[in-house]
Amino acid sequence: MDDKILETTRELIDEVGYPALTVDQVAARAGVGKAAIYRRYTSKAEMAFAATMYEQELPPLAGTGSLHGDLLGLLRAFHIRMAGPAARQLAPALIGEIAVNPGLEARFQDTFLAAEQAIFADIIEQAVARRELAGTVDPAMAHLVALGTLASALYIMRLPVDDRVLTDLATAATAGITALADRRHGPGGAAEPH
What we know:
The protein folds into two domains: 2-40, Arc Repressor Mutant, subunit A; 57-185, Tetracycline Repressor, domain 2 (Orthogonal Bundle). Helices cover 73% and strands 0% of the residues. It is built from nine helices and no strands. Helix 5 crosses helix 8 (139-156) and helix 7 crosses helix 8. 30% of the residues are buried.
């Protein structure tokens, strides 16, 4: 049933666009009740976001052997998800709903963002093990530095993002994450509390 709901949502977004999409349409075409949809998703925006941006597994850890390489691989994978026409319609709508719906904010934090931040935690852990970083960095901050800039470029500034831009973002994120680790763990830095 989950797959049918998401598939139907994608089809309808392609046909009518996100603004005209309704949960009633999805329920009718998927052959499920609205209650079945609302047990899975708190809103139209969350359902559409899941269908268009998170319908597949998150990208695996790149494992390139360098912090920059891993961040670049991750940015490339997320760019594919985030740059499509549906994602460009949905992300601002979801952000608007999150701003007024504390339940949706908590759900989004606990699902989508937690999964993404787990990837950053793995990347940071490997970079520390390779001695590229002086110590750990909060995965939420690394997430903000890397994917926050990509989201801003795509959804707020509406910039054309190509591989050159992704490489520049990875370089900036690498420098920022390295600086954060040095600040917390380097000579004279205050180690993070355990």
